[in-house]
Amino acid sequence: MASSYDYFLLGDHAAARAAIRGALEAQGFTITETPTGGFFAKRGSTARTVWLGAMAGSKFVINLAVDFMTDAQGLLVARLHRDMTSGALLGGAIGAAKTATIFGETGDAVANDLVARQVLAHRIDNA
């Protein structure tokens, strides 16, 4: 299972950032900007996850972060990674497994969305 995904994005950087945002929103995440110019993406309910742990079902909280950088060729790179202080810890071992599964599914869904938007040059799965 990847610990992060690097998406190498074609075209205008502002449009590529908007494509990442749109891809995550399409997966049900609420996006806020970080002080460093990245994104914080949240889906689910912290309160429900605290009370029910991994049994929170579709309301199980997952937090992701996106950091942006530029590669040597000038492509915008969006690094998607998990925030391990959320549901994974609250849900115990089952929560950690659930978070890993959701993260993998989200990573693939974002890649598919970016391909459909014709902005994905390639993706690297980081171990």
Molecular structure report:
The protein is an alpha+beta fold and about 130 residues long. About 40% of the residues lie in helices and about 30% in strands. The protein is built from four helices and six strands, in the order βαββαββααβ. It has helices spanning about 15-25, 45-50, 85-90, 90-115; strands at about 5-10, 30-35, 40-45, 60-70, 75-80, 120-125. It has a six-stranded antiparallel sheet with strand order 2-3-4-5-1-6, with helices on one face. A hairpin with a 5-residue loop joins β4 and β5. The protein is elongated, with a radius of gyration of 15 Å. It starts with a strand and ends with a strand. The relative contact order is 0.26. The model has no long low-confidence stretch (mean pLDDT about 90).
The separation of the N and C termini measures 7 Å
Tell me the fraction of residues in β-strands, as a range.
25-35%
Task: Average the pLDDT over all residues and give the rounded result.
Answer: 89
What is the tally of beta strands? 6
Instruction: Tell me the series of helices and strands, N- to C-terminal.
Output: EHEEHEEHHE
In the predicted model, the low-confidence regions spanning at least 5 consecutive residues are none
Number of helices: 4
What's the shape? Answer: elongated
